TrEMBL record:
This is Aspartate-semialdehyde dehydrogenase 2. The keyword Oxidoreductase applies. GO terms for molecular function: aspartate-semialdehyde dehydrogenase activity; NAD binding; NADP binding; protein dimerization activity. Belongs to the aspartate-semialdehyde dehydrogenase family. The gene is asd2. PANTHER family: ASPARTATE-SEMIALDEHYDE DEHYDROGENASE. Residues 6-138 form the Semialdehyde dehydrogenase NAD-binding domain. It comes from Acetatifactor muris. The active site is at residues 158, 251. GO terms for biological process: methionine biosynthetic process; threonine biosynthetic process. InterPro entries: ASADH-related, Asp_semi-ald_DH_pep-lack, NAD(P)-bd_dom_sf, Semialdehyde_DH_NAD-bd, Semialdhyde_DH_dimer_dom.
Length: 361
């Protein structure tokens, strides 16, 4: 127990905060010792602060029920209790940027689920299997912040997880144009059907800000570090529509791709099944053994059958076939609150620890 790193969860009472706490129960490297939230929750036990708003399928872990929730704005007090923090705070973008940097300046690494720092040039935005090398930018960020161990790292938007890894696996064939339509679960908005009943049997063809993120964030993940900042890749060109659908967990994407070097279908499937990265090589605790699975059945992937593949950390792909306008089309599926949110951030933290960026104080 004493060998595990002490972890704080900022914004621990919300849905993503709850997911962090669920995923970290019995984690071999990390132990949740501190939960911070808004001033209205501060001073209550975690169980009291959440009340009837526990949204996970599994029970609240016993180890956190009686933890006294701290005020997230009392940065020095929270930071002194932990080795690093996960951030899932619900504030304005500018408030999030400031408070995450404040924690970093208090020499506390921050691994964030939020979007506020995704375009800060010296903040790595990582899918650990795709761009682990972006961790190298942390040295430049620390110099800017004046820190020795504090920094901010983020994970990308949940909507891109169902197709960006797929395109990465195919990079040698040089994808140049991509059309993606994502069908996104309501948990992506922090909702369940109980608190969003108007989504039952409904589709909403708009999710604020989502399409721009879905088109631009993959380019940053595929970018390179130049002069201490991450410079996004120039291509492929991606255009996207994002639609909210009556599903609790699981973002599905229907994707069309044009390549400069059109491969055979069998080559594409082989690349998907063989694709892995540092998390698999290092056998990190949350890493899926099989990052991407390809399903041969025409009616797969399905949310009901496939969203929990590799404990929600794997990507499921199916219906790959030639297209009459583009070269190929396929359907991808990822778990938006596990791989796409808290689980992806936990895997980032595991990689950061394995590479020496996170350790005990």
């Amino acid at each position: 127990m004493s060998e595990r790193l002490k972890v704080g969860v900022l914004g621990g009472t919300g849905m993503v905060g709850q997911r962090f706490i669920s995923l970290l129960e019995n984690h071999p490297w990390f132990e949740v010792t501190t939960i911070a939230a808004s001033p209205r929750s501060a001073g209550k036990t975690y169980e009291e602060a959440v009340g009837g708003r526990w949204k996970m399928d599994t029970p609240m872990p016993e180890a956190v029920k009686n933890l006294k929730v701290m005020n997230v704005n009392e940065v020095e007090a929270v930071a002194s209790q932990v080795d690093f923090v996960f951030s899932a705070v619900d504030m304005t973008k500018e408030e999030i940027k400031k408070i995450e940097e404040d924690y970093a300046k208090a020499e506390t690494p921050v691994v964030s689920n939020n979007s506020a720092h995704r375009w800060t040039p010296d903040v790595p935005m990582m899918v650990p299997e795709i761009n682990p090398g972006h961790m190298d930018v942390i040295a430049f960020q620390r110099k800017r912040l004046g820190t020795t161990r504090g920094f901010v790292a983020v994970k990308p938007n949940c909507s891109i997880q169902s197709y960006a890894p797929v395109l990465t696996a195919w990079m040698e064939f040089e994808p140049e144009e991509v059309i993606a339509t994502t069908y996104q679960a309501i948990s992506g908005a922090g909702k369940t059907f109980q608190d969003w009943p108007e989504m039952v049997g409904n589709i909403i063809p708009y999710i604020g800000g989502e399409e721009e993120k879905s088109e631009k964030e993959p380019l940053r993940i595929w970018g390179k570090i130049e002069n201490g900042v991450i410079v996004p890749a120039a291509g492929p060109v991606i255009t996207c529509q994002c639609i909210r659908v009556p599903v609790l967990n699981g973002h599905t994407a229907a994707v069309f791709v044009r390549f400069k070097k059109k491969p055979a279908k069998e080559q594409l499937i082989e690349k998907l099944r063989a694709f892995s990265g540092e998390p698999q090589r290092l056998n990190l605790p949350s890493a899926p053994k099989q990052f991407i699975q390809y399903l041969e059945d025409d009616n797969r992937p399905q949310v009901a059958l496939d969203v929990d593949f590799e404990n929600g950390m794997g990507i499921s792909v199916g219906r790959l076939r030639e297209d009459t306008v583009y070269d190929y089309k396929f359907v991808g599926l990822s778990h938006n609150t596990v791989r796409g949110a808290a689980g992806g951030a936990v895997l980032c933290a595991e990689l950061l620890k394995a590479q020496g960026y996170i350790g005990s104080r």
